[in-house]
Design a protein that fits this description.
Number of domains: 2
Number of helices: 2
Helix content: under 10%
Order of helices and strands: HEEEEEEHEEEEEEEE
Oligomer: single chain
Strand content: 25-35%
């Protein structure tokens, strides 16, 4: 029987000429995936976090965070941090205590790769490097911003639609199109809000095609506090926005 050290020495680096080979779950030895940047790949709950100091009794509520967190090693060794799957953290603070919850955003991309148990999507915002098995699947990872809107959390990234999540459980509800009123394939990760009326001002670029075809179309929406779209204006950008 081979000694464990002999087996370890025979394990090959999982990237050849910059591309993943085999099904070994091992991330690249690049700064994007090591030390502080190493993916956590964590979904879970911690009840009553250990705290340094004291949380003032007046602070009650939930702090939400979204971040890129690769679920699987990337197809290409030199992948970048912004390709990581969207991961939502909720820290609920109540009466001096804090509870932790973390879940992935169950995007179309995430579910396709979870079923295959490996990465299927290639280089950042380049659908031509994807596996044939996922051609046409929405590529967004919803990892850039999270917004509270009319009872749900919207996790978003500029290259696709937002995804709605339950703010209590962090369960993904699904793609969000503002009750059918927003049909652009992309949506901003940085909507703005009128502090007096609650109106959302938002936009999408690469809005005229499928979100990956270099469309120069830009659309601007205004949506009132009751969720009704009140304005939609289309423009042509003088240059590609990707």
């Amino acid at each position: 029987m081979a000694h464990i050290y002999e087996i370890a020495n025979s394990v090959e680096y999982p990237y050849v000429d910059g591309r993943k080979r085999g099904n070994q779950v091992k991330f690249p030895n690049t700064p994007v995936f090591q030390t502080f940047n190493a993916p956590s790949r964590l979904e879970g709950d911690i009840f009553d976090l250990e705290i340094s100091g004291t949380i003032p009794q007046e602070i009650n509520g939930t702090f939400y965070r979204v971040q890129p967190d690769h679920r699987f090693p990337p197809v290409f060794e030199e992948d970048i941090h912004f390709s990581g799957d969207g991961s939502i953290t909720a820290i609920q603070i109540q009466d001096g205590h804090a509870d932790f919850k973390q879940r992935y955003v169950q995007t179309d991309k995430f579910k396709a790769e979870a079923a295959a148990r490996k990465s299927l999507f290639g280089k950042y915002r380049n659908p031509y490097t994807d596996s044939e098995s996922v051609k046409g699947v929405i590529r967004t990872v919803a990892n850039t911003n999270i917004t509270f809107w009319r009872g749900v959390l919207l996790a978003s990234k500029e290259d696709g639609p937002p995804y709605a999540l339950d703010p209590t459980t962090l369960e993904t509800i699904g793609r969000y199109d503002f009750e059918g009123q927003v049909q652009s394939p992309t949506f901003t990760a940085h909507p703005k809000f009128d502090p007096n009326t609650g109106e959302m001002i938002c936009f999408a670029y690469e809005a005229g095609g499928n979100g990956n075809d270099g469309s120069c179309d830009i659309v601007v929406y205004t949506i009132d506090a009751n969720g009704k779209k009140t304005e939609e204006a289309w423009y042509k950008s003088p240059f590609y926005q990707g």
